[in-house]
Specification:
Layout lengths: L1 H19 L12 H5 L3 H15 L14 H12 L3
Amino acid sequence: MAAIVEERRETIKEIVVDILEIEPGEVTDTSLFKEDHDADSLRAIEILAALEKTFNIVIDQSELSRMVNLDGVYEVVSEAAGWQ
C-alpha cells in the first residue's frame, strides 16, 4: 500500500513540476505553489486539468483553494478518486 501511495504522490509531483516549470528538487510537500514558485491561477487550473486526465477523476474548481502545495493536491485527488 505504501508503494502505491508513493507512486501516486510521485505522479502528482511530476505533473506539478512540469506545469510550473520547476525542478523536482525545488518543490517540497509543503512549499506553496503561488508564494514559493510564482504559480498563477491559470497554472493551478492546468494542474487540476492534468490531474483529472491522469487519474480519470473530476475535481470541482472550488477545491483549488486547497491545492496550494503537494500535500493539499494529494488530499484533493485522493478524495476525488476515492483512495483510502
